[in-house]
Amino acid sequence: MKDHYLICVLAPKVLITPLKRLIKRELLVMASDLNQANSFAISDSLKIQRVGVFLGARVSGIDLTQPLSNKTVDELKLAHANHGVLIFPNQTISSEDLKRFGRYFGDLSVHPFSTSSADAPELIVYDNKEGNPPAPTDIWHTDETFREAPPMGTALCSKIIPETGGNTAFASMSAVYEGLSDRWQRFLSGLEAVHDFKPFRSLFPSDAAGIAKLRHFEDRYPSTTHPVVSVHPVTGKKVIFVNPQFTLYIKGMAEDESRMILEMLYRKT
């Protein structure tokens, strides 16, 4: 594929499928909340075209190798809130361009477990060339919900991609909520779920040094609680906020009850 893409994601569930062929992506996580303003005018040059039923829009008329005006940034923030996933085709950007773009949305986050380059800790490089197998990202997840304050979004930039396969899929969790019956919506709105960095625990060896390092991360990132139904800070939409990668259980329920509800919600994505 010749085109280069930047995809800006507003914390929906995401699935990155591993490939046997070469794939390389840079991942940037943005930590802060969105601007709270409700409406911005779209400029003559900036075009935002809806491409999905529940989420997704293509952005054209913009060059991300250049600094953006405050007006353009405001327009992108609103589009990001409304569409969830923004796609920027035909962008050939550097790592510095990617970081500058992320900072328009807020402070950048450093992932505590995924491999990053020493000179750019805010970036995660997914590169599955020979000798470097794909990361275990082929599970539906919302990024870093094991944190007390998860990042508000993620920017992905494709560098080397195959002609077929290697899809990155997104699911609208507001659509999942809206597809539930009124009774289920009311029931879930009063629940909380416990999240943990469980998939990363396997990174620590079982020797004394590995156990000590794991305890350090457990102290730094203890299991945390989030509402099962979250409210978007800009649009006010309600979204299901659980995922099979980081959610352990629903508080105040028997194990089989919690598992039944979570599995039902996961099936709907």
Structure description:
With 269 residues, the protein is α+β, with helices and mostly antiparallel strands. The protein has 2 domains: 5-170, Double-stranded beta-helix (4-Layer Sandwich); 172-267, Clavaminate synthase-like (Double-stranded beta-helix, 4-Layer Sandwich). The protein has helices spanning 70-83, 95-103, 173-178, 182-188, 208-220, 255-267, and strands at 5-9, 13-16, 24-30, 47-50, 57-60, 85-89, 108-109, 116-117, 120-127, 153-160, 168-171, 192-195, 224-227, 229-231, 238-240, 247-250. Strands 1, 3, 4, 5, 6, 7, 8, 9 and 10 form a 9-stranded mixed beta sheet that branches. Strands 13-12-16 form a 3-stranded antiparallel beta sheet. Residues 10-24 and 31-42 have low confidence and may be disordered.
List the defining traits of the structure above.
single chain, 269 residues, alpha+beta, Double-stranded beta-helix, 2 domains, nine-stranded mixed beta sheet, three-stranded antiparallel beta sheet, 6 helices, 16 strands, 23% helix
What's the CATH H-level homologous superfamily of the largest domain? Answer: Clavaminate synthase-like
CATH topology of the largest domain: Double-stranded beta-helix
Oligomer: single chain
Indicate the overall shape.
globular
Helical region count?
6
What is the CATH domain class of the largest domain? Alpha Beta
Q: Roughly what fraction of the amino acids lie in strands?
A: 25-35%
Distance between the termini: 28 Å
Low-confidence stretches: 10-24, 31-42
Cα-based radius of gyration, to the nearest Å:
19 Å
Structural class: alpha+beta
The total domain count is 2
Helix/strand order: EEEEEHEHEEEEEHHEHEEEEH
The total count of strands amounts to 16
